[in-house]
């Protein structure tokens, strides 16, 4: 294999080593650059000498400043560069210039479950929401019992899942930040894959009243809310029988749902990264970004998230807001998170893991510049705060922490019915509630994890396929998976992570 270096922007003074086993000292790249030391796969080589204090440029942006002279052909890693300041939110300009016109894409459909509220499911599941962790032992018992005894009778229902969170009591329910976990739990119960069949299990004495988790916040019938402390139940067995009876009523309704042809505009796709490497911004994320543009062109909804992974590229996103109000909302979410990190006595550099660095990402700036590629090029039509539902179609920024499980949880609350998860280092991430298409940024990973990765964007690094070609392939895969015609690895293998609630508020 030839020595392959990828340089994204003509102004970059570093390139990424693509060869699967890195390149040895003395290897020649770009005709005249000799490596002065061995450089691992995904890591940066200086394409020219970089003086002490000079900017290191990748994606045409400053990712850091050289701590000392870096020779041409040397390895540029986190030990040699210092982190620049984050973009100053107040000085990012916004002008309402005409946005890039969206070319409509028509004729693409998938087979989904239509819901009364107009949303469309990609799975058909019974979701059990809890209002407090105290009942989790019972929900675990119940979901097992439903799987064994009831699901075989309702073959049209894919699964049953309980959202066992740690919220509900021992919390400052009136703290301003309490709105985040409360609306998250409430909105997850309305995820399109639950078909509007809401079942809330509470204890009875908790601070978070189960009725608050219903769409209109009041109990409508006996099938929506159950309490374990209900005096109608004498002992465990009666309790279980009572819950099973209600669950069966919901299962009957869910079992009657049928897939029907729905336009691609009914897709609500959550994009997320986890275990990123230097290829994420070259292959996986731009491919996901191209697919994102196709979904938006088809009238669908896409959200990208992870505040700490967009914070350092926010100057590139603000100009893409459809209007000044959305631009301001973007800045407000960044501001909120800056404050949240401040309160915890850290800053955005707390993001980047040892694995990110091993994969060639020197710092959060480099990570963020690659991360935003998954947003494609469409205008940002709205910004939603943590736990809110999307209100319109088009590209959204859904503010969330970057933690995989917390981000996934908040995207589920936003109404996600398909999830794209891009990884470079590899993670077996999967969610029960929606199909998760795992995209690898490099073929070394997808070859090793051939049965865990759903889509390999690696060929882009070597020019074997273009971003456009692979973007279309991913778009078609999304429609196929959304239709239930193809199972993602996580569902085929039954490996699913727990959801994790974002609670920035105080406990009592
Ligand atoms: Ca993540």
What distinguishing features does this structure have?
Archaeosine Trna-guanine Transglycosylase, Chain: A, domain 4, 7-stranded parallel beta sheet, 23 strands, binds calcium ion, globular, alpha/beta, 4-stranded antiparallel beta sheet, 508 residues
Overview of the molecule:
There is one protein chain. Helix content is 27%, strand content 18%. The chain folds into three domains: 85 residues, Archaeosine Trna-guanine Transglycosylase, Chain: A, domain 4 (Roll), CATH 2.30.130; 131 residues; 233 residues. Helix 1 crosses helix 3, helix 2 packs across helix 9 and helix 4 packs across helix 11. The N and C termini lie far apart (60 Å). It has a seven-stranded parallel β-sheet with strand order 19-20-18-17-21-22-23, sandwiched between helices. Strands 1-2-5-8 form a four-stranded antiparallel β-sheet, with no helix packed on it. It has a four-stranded parallel β-sheet with strand order 13-12-14-15, with helices on both faces. The chain is an alpha/beta fold and 508 residues long. The mean pLDDT is 96. The longest helix is centred in the middle third of the chain and has 21 residues. The structure holds calcium ion. The site of calcium ion (CA) has 7 residues, from strand 17 and helix 9.
């Amino acid at each position: 294999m030839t020595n392959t270096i990828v340089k994204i922007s003509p102004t970059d003074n570093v390139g990424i080593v693509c060869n699967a086993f890195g390149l040895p000292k003395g290897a020649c790249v770009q005709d005249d650059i000799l490596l002065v030391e061995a450089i691992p796969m995904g890591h940066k080589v200086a394409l020219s000498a970089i003086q002490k204090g000079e900017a290191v440029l990748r994606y045409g942006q400053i990712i850091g400043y050289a701590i000392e002279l870096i020779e041409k052909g040397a390895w540029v890693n986190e030990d040699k560069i210092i982190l620049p300041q984050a973009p100053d939110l107040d000085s990012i300009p916004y002008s309402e210039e005409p946005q890039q016109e969206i070319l409509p894409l028509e004729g693409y459909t998938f087979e989904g479950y239509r819901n009364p509220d107009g949303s469309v499911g990609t799975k058909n599941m019974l979701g059990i929401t809890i209002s407090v962790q105290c009942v989790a032992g019972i929900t675990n018992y119940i979901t097992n019992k439903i799987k064994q005894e009831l699901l075989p009778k309702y073959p049209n229902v894919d699964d049953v899942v309980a959202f066992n969170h740690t919220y509900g009591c021992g919390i400052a329910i009136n703290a301003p930040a309490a709105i985040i976990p409360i609306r998250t739990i409430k909105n997850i119960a309305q995820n399109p894959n639950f078909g509007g069949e809401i079942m809330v299990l509470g204890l009875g004495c908790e601070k978070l009243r189960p009725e608050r988790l219903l769409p209109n916040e009041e109990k409508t019938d006996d099938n929506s809310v159950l309490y374990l402390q209900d005096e109608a139940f004498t002992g465990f067995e009666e309790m279980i029988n009572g819950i099973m009876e209600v669950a069966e009523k919901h299962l009957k309704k869910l079992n009657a749902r049928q897939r029907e042809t729905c336009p691609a505009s009914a897709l609500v796709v959550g994009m997320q990264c986890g275990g990123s490497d230097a290829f994420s911004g070259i292959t996986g994320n731009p491919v996901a970004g191209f697919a994102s543009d196709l979904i938006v062109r088809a009238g669908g909804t896409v959200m990208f998230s992870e505040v700490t992974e967009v914070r350092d590229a926010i100057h590139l996103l603000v100009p893409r807001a459809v209007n000044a109000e959305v631009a301001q909302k973007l800045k407000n979410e960044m501001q909120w998170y800056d404050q949240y990190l401040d309160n915890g006595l850290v800053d955005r550099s707390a993001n980047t893991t040892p694995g990110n660095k091993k994969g060639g990402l020197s710092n959060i700036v480099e990570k963020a510049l690659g991360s935003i590629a998954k947003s494609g090029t469409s205008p940002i039509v709205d910004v939603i705060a943590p736990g809110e539902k999307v209100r319109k179609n088009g590209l959204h920024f859904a503010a969330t922490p970057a933690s995989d499980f917390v981000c996934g949880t908040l995207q589920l609350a936003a109404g996600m019915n398909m999830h794209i998860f891009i990884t470079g280092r590899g993670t077996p991430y999967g969610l029960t509630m929606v199909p998760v298409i795992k995209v690898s940024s490099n073929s070394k990973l997808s070859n090793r994890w051939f049965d865990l990765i759903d889509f390999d964007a690696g060929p882009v690094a070597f020019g074997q396929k273009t971003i456009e070609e692979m973007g279309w392939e991913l778009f078609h895969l999304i429609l196929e998976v959304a239709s239930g015609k193809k199972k993602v690895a996580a569902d085929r293998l039954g490996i699913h992570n727990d959801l994790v609630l974002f609670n920035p508020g105080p406990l009592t």
